[in-house]
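Onboarding guide, step 5: your first structure request.
Type a short instruction followed by the sequence, for example:

Predict the 3D structure of this protein.
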Amino acid sequence: MKRLLEVLLVSFLVTQYAVAQSDSVRVEIPIRPNQTRPLVVPMADQGFAVLDKRQQSLLEPSNVMTVTGYDSNMQQQWQESITHNRRLSLRLYEYQEGKVYLIFGNQSREDVEFFVFDPKNGNVEKHSFLYLGNLIIEDFTVIADNIYILGTLKRLPVLLEFQLDTKKIAPFAMAVSAKNVEVLEILKNGDSQVGATISMEVNRSKQLLTKTFDLNTGEGHEFVVKPSEEYDLLNGKVTVLNAQDKLVMGTYGYHNRPQSQGMYVAGYVGNREVIKKYHQFTEMSNFFNFLGEKEQKRIEVRATKKAEKGKDIKLKYRLLVHNAIAHNNQYIMLGEAYYPTYRTERYRRYGLRGYHYDTRIVFDGYKFTHAVVAAIDKRGELVWDYSFKINDTKTFQLKERVKLLAQEEVITLIYNLEGEIFQLQIENGKILDEAKGVDVNTTFVSDQVRNSDLGEAEYWYDHYFLAWGFQKIKNNQGESDKNKRNVFYINKLSY
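The system replies with structure tokens like these:
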């Protein structure tokens, strides 16, 4: 293993980052600490939308949401309020095909509501459907103004087409004969194909099934990504290259273990597999460089001893894998390593002899440790890899936090940690700059941030990102109307 870098978190130099943020603009929305946080939807160069479901008082209805549109200069352009069925909750939201889509549902009910916003003027359309009850909505996409929803019904995959103009619902043939079926993602190829990727267990082996359907002919195709005998495929992301070619990248592990041992790459022409490569984490050049030098050495010694016996060390990492990005005749894979945490909870319960206290183990969130970025060539071979800390971030949602932007020769990765932006830049596998994270700009020079929530960041358009979250701010210099304020901030960052 190559000599590992001593500095773990890499970013722009502070002076360089200050220049990058000089044209940043900030929006602040007053908010109480215990209120529900708004949601932000980047809309490319059309701006961004803020979804706000906060109740100002207990007398206000809880099924009203305010949607506010801002342009790319961070200026408010429109605001609309929507009222949804009070028994439904927001399941999915996203900017697609030039519009913002909100999907409300409830797996115990048979209705679903779609709200479609036009970012140019804030005009909104509402569409209501009756569909299959007990459907758990997982993902969606939009093709030619029709909405395609992927979900599960009684633990089986379901793919439905909702035609907004005719109010018709059309199902696709997604039946599979397997155990432990899990839907991973919905797929589309232009306006002609829709499909889904599914994880399933066949003969005690976890594999991936991808089904696609031609929207003009109704013809269906499928291909299965099968592991070698000793492995399970834990997850995977399918990149549609064209109507025939597809690339699958994900992680694999030993049978009946949820932890990853490495990453795999599989290429398909139609339903024919043309390449399959496995890359163990222990064989990567920089996979462990987020650790301290002593820990790296200890793992290296363990790996060497195991290799001498013809075995591999069993790792404990799980990776949340992103979609692959095509960049300069290579494919960039990004994954975030995490593990579930638990705590012991003491509770009171009634038994045959009256009340007594007992303990139980309860889930206490996912802790993210580091991120891994790697470049793969068209033969499936590993070109370079790198890992970096993400500061033991804990969250109750498995949600992508590190964001990637590929520009010419440079790859930029950023994430927001409690209002502090960390950045890593890579050019041809080489790290460009090393520095600590830098706080997002506040509205006033004398603002002192007393508290921030975890925060989020997302690629916006061109060379811009958006960063947002909650902050408690103190200012004793009279620059603000109040000495203390609680705000939901949205910052524009340029790189």
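Each response can be followed by summary notes, for example: Residues 1-83+404-495 form one domain.
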